[in-house]
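User: Okay, second chain of the day. Same drill as before: sequence in, structure tokens out.
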Amino acid sequence: MKKAFILSTLLLASSSSAIILESTALKKLDGIWPAFDGIAILNIVHLKSKYTDMNVGKLNKKTKEREGLYAFKGKKYSIARLVEVEKEFKNDAKAQQELSKILENVKAEFIGLNEEFIKQIQGFKDMVISIMRESCNKRNVAHSFMLSWTDTQAGQETESFKKNMRSFSQLNKFLTDLDGFLKDIYDSCPKGRKQFFDILRKQREQRNNNA
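Assistant: Same drill. Structure tokens below.
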């Protein structure tokens, strides 16, 4: 939980440019389980950190630089860097085959991270979609893979993602859009955020008492 607290602090530090969503649906879901209560916000902070590690690399505490998680031709790359690699080797069939395998593994990793969260919000999917649309509009995102969820039957999200996410370029944009959306949720849920900090405070107190 110490890590989650640090991540939440980083989120708050970047909130000077916060986009506050005004959706009636979000106001109804703020602080409510299983939507956006403190536990859900904690999960969002965790997922947001994981998406960043995947997309631009994991922060090396010693060098203070981000390092890619995915190996290609003996080197580690982030998804953002694999976008460039994908273009560089576009005419190399063997390299494209290797990149395709990496992409499938990355998609499986993403699906594993999100499986529980997707199940959790199925009951109010229409409301979440309306919140996504407002976030995309306020961020001037004209087209986002996130919104393809509107045309996906409940329970088919994973198969749709597997089938339609075909390149690192597409995945890079999707993760960037998703990161922005989760930040908007965080910044726009004062009740859930308060519950989140209460959870962290109680866990710190418990650790201190057990020390």
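The chain has a mean pLDDT of 90.

User: Thanks, on to the next one.
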